[in-house]
Amino acid sequence: MTDENKNIIRSYNTDMLLMLFAPAAVACFYYGERAIRLMLAAVLTSFVCELFGGLLLARRANLRSMSFVFNGLCVALMLPASVQYWMVIAGTAFAVVFAKLPFGNSEKSPFVPAAAGLAFLTICWPDYVFRFPEVGSAYIGEGFVGGTSMSSMLSDGNSINDSLVSLMEIFVGEIPGPMGACCIIALAGSAVYLLIRRWKKFLTALAFLGVCAVYAAIFPRISAGAQLSVIMELCSGSLIFGALFFMTDYYTSPDGLIKGILYGAAGGLVAMLLRSFGAYEDSTVFAVLLMNAVSPLLAGVGKKIIGKQPDASEDVIYDPLAGGEPVE
Questions:
Q1: CA distance 292 to 229
Q2: CA atoms within 13 A on the CB side of 31
Q3: What pTM does this model have?
Q4: Residue 133, strand partner residues
Q5: Helix %, strand %, coil % of the chain (to 5)
Q6: Tens-digit pLDDT profile for residues 259-286
Q7: Which one of 16, 81, 114, 116 is most buried, counting C-beta atoms within 10 A?
């Protein structure tokens, strides 16, 4: 990897980490010291796996890219604050050891590592992954006071009260769920930053959420109406977090405007289908991984739409002044 590419990756990861600041701060506000410890455990695990994995594979770990921090924080923030430390460590280790390091250049994984780690935890220990505490409850004995998430309510066909108080609780994150994915105001701030820095990636996330919203309006899982269905679907679980941080991944999401929008829209449809008919109350990470697998195919389709045939030998030129965005 050239120094120029390393700088581009570092710039991208820096943007992602700045976007994570608001969700991480909200997690610390609601869950205190425990949230901090969970995030530190994840980041430290990611660092150790990157370092020693690189040594075992006779490959120097690119720790300066800060991707190990991003992967660790994403795994921690997408889990309940009541989760045990060993689960955070296991999920982060899987993300790095099995979804990142084996693919040649450790920075260029065909799958979003954090999404793979979370999928691993979901398959192995779903009861722990979806056991959310009441917001702000104290950690006593074996865990927090249990709460009911909106994603669980949607799975059961139940709806929230559509009062202004209930809606405000949703927007400020005072609902049970992943500790870094429930405060809509914080995630909106991250979205604005993404729009300013990398508007094409923002449109990918917007297409993802737009299709989710349309699907929720047409096929509501609750009987309280289309509007409340859209609000609950978008604001529950990891949908917005996954759109902003996973669907916009530097390597797995296609470059270009049309290709990115196609990728995001298809991902939104897959996510909603899995939510409606899948085995888990929230399957966003599985939708991300499925889209990672078909990303090269969608990239080819996008080129045909804009009248350009795919060319495997084509070189990609990057513009450092545009935050490392590829020039088409």
A1: 27
A2: 35
A3: 0.88
A4: 146
A5: 65, 5, 35
A6: 999 999 999 999 999 999 999 999 999 9
A7: 114
The DSSP letter of residue 322 is G
Q: How many Cα neighbours within 13 Å face the side chain of 274? A: 19
- d(CA 246, CA 240) in angstroms, rounded, equals 10
Give one DSSP letter per residue of 159-225, joined into a string. ----SHHHHHHHHHT-SSS-TTS--HHHHHHHHHHHHHH-HHHHHHHHHHHHHHHHHHHHS-SSSS-
What tokens appear for 199 in the block?
């508007």
Q: How many CA atoms lie within 13 A of 200 on its CB side?
A: 19
Question: 320: which 2 tokens?
Answer: 């450092």
Helices (H) and strands (E) in the chain, counts: 14, 2
Rounded Cα gap, residues 120 and 69, in angstroms: 19
Longest CA–CA separation in the chain, Å? 62
Q: Which DSSP state fits 281?
A: S
Give the angle 104-123-82 at the CA atoms, nearest 5°. Answer: 105
**Tokens standing for residue 258:** 């049309």
Set out the domains of the chain in order of their start, with CATH numbers.
Answer: 3-133+145-306 (1.10.3430)
Instruction: Please spell the DSSP secondary structure of 43-65, one letter per residue.
Output: HHHHHHHHHHHHHHTT----GGG
Residues 6+ apart with CB under 8 A from 65: 6, 9, 10, 13, 107
Which residue has 């954090």 as its token pair? 114
